[in-house]
Amino acid sequence: MADELTPKPEDKFAFGLWTIGHIGRDPFGDATRPPIDPVDFIRGLAEIGAWGVSFHDDDLMTFGASQSQRRAELDRFKKGLDETGIVCSMATTNLFWHPMFKDGAFTSNDRSVRRMAIQKTMRSLDVAAELGAPTYVFWGGREGVESAASKEPRDALDRFKEALDFLCGYVKDKGYSMRFAIEPKPNEPRGDTFLPTIGHAMSFIQTLEYSEMVGLNPEVAHETMAGLSFYQGVAQALWQGKLFHIDLNDQKIGRYDQDLRFGSEGIKDDFFLVRLLESSGYDGPKHFDARPYRNEKGEGIWDFARGCIRTYLALAAKAREFDQDPRVAEAMAKASVPELAVATVGPYSTETATALMAEVFDPDQLADRSYGNEALDQLVIDRILGI
After folding, report:
1. Would residue 98 show up in a list of annotated catalytic residues for this protein?
2. Where are the domains of the chain?
3. For residue 46, which of 10, 206, 294, 357 sits 20 to 30 Å off, Cα-Cα?
4. pTM for the complete prediction?
5. pLDDT digit string (tens) for 114-151?
6. How far apart (Å, rounded) are the C-alpha atoms in residues 238 and 2?
7. What CATH fold (topology level) applies to the domain 3-323?
8. Which residue of the set 59, 247, 250, 259 is catalytic?
9. Which of 56, 222, 245, 287 is the catalytic position?
10. Quick one: pLDDT band at residue 2, thresholds 50, 70, 90?
11. What values do phi and psi take at 41, rounded to 5?
12. 1 pLDDT higher than 90
């Protein structure tokens, strides 16, 4: 199995500059480790077998610095990418840290803040295009409320739509080869966030002027915070052709956003998620949006990164073994799993409707069957535990 745990470029494992490089600050304590220089960061990624790196604009270039300084920082990063072979897999804008965004960015009640947020994003899009990022993520961390009376939600959604429509137009006008991905989150840092779940975001996308350009970047922790099944949400995003990017981490249900090492908590959920990604044909980045424990530093933070990759690859191997197990095939047949792929009635016609109405069903007989789900689920647990 050793070879199965060795990452390859085609696995497309990626980390954001803010992940392994997180300095350990939290709402109740200051930094516990020093920052990592972006170039040292990508060299470290190359050493552990990662494929890509992502960034916020302010991770890479000092906010408020002179244009010459920002240019030098960007050029140095580009040189590091060239030297290591690490690709820029995704980019995004920091629209949450600066105090001016305390009431929101695209949905701030202050029109000047909204215009500044769009301008900041346009400049970041230019950088993303220069670095060849194929996906641009929009996480609306400050797009929400604590006081329900402070914003009319329908107006806020109008402004969110207006911003994305405008930015799509900017990308098309510039000729950039780039897609957008919305990252839903139910709460934190705002008390209630607009577009809180995969389902909300999916519905919102259908209203956009360039909806074909916009998909999803769902995150394990965010759906889990709301007590939802991330696996089911990702499956629907795949079904609708909207899984443009994915953030992998882990999370305890009902807690604040923890961004734990992938596979460190919901191992059964993670098994099915990996199995889904590996079998679905998804070919985008497997992006780890997680952070080392606050009490780690030095080599410990790279142990964290290697752990994310190792667990994903181990679960992928377990999923292959599971799908090749004849006992699993037998249990799935008993549960009629393959039958769900068979059309129920097919397209409507008068003839098929008449035939269905003439069919006779025995409710008691239909109710009498057993689906064998206990035995099937135990096979999942046996495989994960290596029994």
Report:
1. no
2. 3-323, 326-385
3. 294
4. 0.96
5. 999 999 999 999 999 999 999 999 999 999 999 999 99
6. 30
7. TIM Barrel (3.20.20)
8. 59
9. 56
10. confident
11. -60, -50
12. no
